[in-house]
Automatic annotation (TrEMBL):
The keyword Zinc applies. It comes from the Eukaryota. It comes from Mola mola. SMART domains: BBOX, RING. It holds the Pfam family zf-B_box. The lineage of its organism: Eukaryota, Metazoa, Chordata, Craniata, Vertebrata. This is Uncharacterized protein. GO terms for molecular function: zinc ion binding.
Amino acid sequence: MCCRLNVDSSRDGADMAAAGSQLMEDQFLCSICLEVFTAPVSTPCGHNFCQSCISAHWDLNVSCQCPICKRLFQARPELHVNTFISEMVAHFRRSAQPETGGGPELRAARPGEVHCDVCAGTRLKALKSCLVCLVSYCQTHLEPHLTAAGLRRHQLIEPVENLESRVCTQHGKPLELFCRDEQACICTLCSVVDHKAHDLVSLQDGYEVQKAELVAMEAELQHLIQQRQMRIAELKTDN
């Protein structure tokens, strides 16, 4: 009988732990994408959403309204990542997954390195920067961008500082294209408004072309320098 009671007690404990884990996960779910928060922000009415989800929701609507309580905001609220909730979400993710032994990327950022914008307390080294969220993520906080369907479409780049400089000042969209006609980085909205008939390529292709041109220019300059040096040497020999 004692054994029976112990088994039942263990099962009850496991069920309670599972229920508690599910309850905690529900608290961290964005009501728009139904995924665990990524870069969570809080609206003035106190509700929380993924930064990219609420931004996209408001972009698609004329008015800015809370999707949960329907409170209408006269002006679009300026939202910032809620570091407390973000750290709670990160703790939940770590506790919900088995230990993996970390790795070289799970360490504090050193001077000169890009740090994670989501970490509270010790800032870990950023693994990627997102041009949609305008946030740099460490290995732990990057995980939703690799698994959540709504986030996998975001454009990730090697970690960089000053992400705002990678955004179009006119439209607030990521600079994803390079205009060969005007030699400028533009966003997708620029491409259909001001650069509709221009020769456009991706930023990576534009970078490769510019790099090749600079290498060719450097080689030409080196050739000219060598010719000048040879000419100077000849003049000295003649004298």
